[in-house]
Write a structure and sequence with these properties.
Layout (H helix, E strand, L loop, with lengths): L2 H25 L9 E7 L5 E2 L5 E2 L5 E8 L15 E4 L4 E5 L4 E5 L5 E8 L17 E8 L5 E2 L21 E2 L7 E4 L2 E3 L8 E2 L3 E4 L9 H34 L2
Antiparallel strand pairs: 1-4, 2-3, 5-15, 6-7, 6-10, 7-13, 8-9, 11-14, 12-13
Helix pairs in contact: 1-2
Length: 253
């Protein structure tokens, strides 16, 4: 079968992948802290190559979507009035620590909450009595978290114990040398790779009782979505035309 069939088939599949990324952006246009993705395409192998025993490896056909880069540009910071909401004006991320996995991740979504934990009393600390008159061995404390069991870290790299929820907490802002290639691990969280460098304190400004709006440009996304749909339909027509050509050739034999 001629190469045009495979080129069109690859094109249709990759345009479908592109539409998936764009559709996800549109679906999250009102999601706080969401960072839009940009599909990245790369050319397939466009020449023949020598394989094992001198056999020729077939060249590729068209282009493929090699990934989706994240757009970290900041957007508006609407006020919410919630005491556990934080936003970053400028560059940087909030740091989250998962004690179960001992894993650190970073996010621009500052819609935090309070989570209660029971911790043992320190030596010499006054211990109240329980309802049976026995000294309590643990006390209940509140920590700032993301609502999924992960602690929000302060600028000292420690979980933030909240004693008064009506005051601003010392939430840390962390940054990296560059953002290219950061892994999206879901729930608006990212994890750095080696080329991003080690986390450092960022110079962004903490804004209390605000959240970062989604940076999705709806007009741009819809335009690109229509463009991908048209390209997808043209690829299908190309597949149909190639199939008709092959059918005609086979009928002449």
């Amino acid at each position: 079968m001629n190469l045009s069939f495979y080129t069109a088939a690859v094109g249709a599949e990759q345009q479908q992948n592109k539409m998936g990324v764009l559709s996800n952006n549109v679906a999250n246009v009102n999601t706080y802290g969401f960072c839009a993705k940009r599909p990245v395409f790369t050319a397939c192998m466009y020449d023949f190559m020598n394989g094992v025993d001198g056999e020729q490896l077939q060249r590729g056909a068209g282009t493929i979507m090699s990934g989706a880069e994240t757009n970290f540009s900041a957007q508006a910071l609407p006020e919410t009035g919630r005491s556990q909401d934080y936003a970053i004006e400028g560059n940087g991320f909030f740091a989250l620590w998962d004690p179960e996995m001992d894993e650190y991740s970073y996010t621009r979504d500052g819609s935090f909450t309070l989570s209660q934990f029971w911790v043992p009393y320190e030596e010499g600390e006054e211990r109240p009595l329980d309802e049976n008159g026995n000294e309590m061995t643990e006390k209940m404390v509140w920590y700032l978290s993301d609502g999924f069991g992960r602690f929000v870290l302060s600028d000292e790299g420690r979980p933030i114990e909240v004693e008064d929820q009506n005051v601003q907490q010392p939430v840390g802002i962390y940054d990296f040398e560059n953002y290219n290639g950061m892994l999206n691990v879901g729930e608006n969280r990212f994890m750095p790779v080696e080329k991003n460098g080690e986390p450092m304190l960022g110079d962004g400004r903490l804004v209390w009782k605000h959240l970062q709006a989604s940076n999705v440009d709806l007009a741009y996304e819809l335009t690109k979505l229509i463009e991908a749909q048209r390209a997808f339909s043209y690829s299908l027509k190309m597949i149909q035309a190639s199939d008709e050509i092959e059918t005609t050739v086979n009928s002449l034999r």
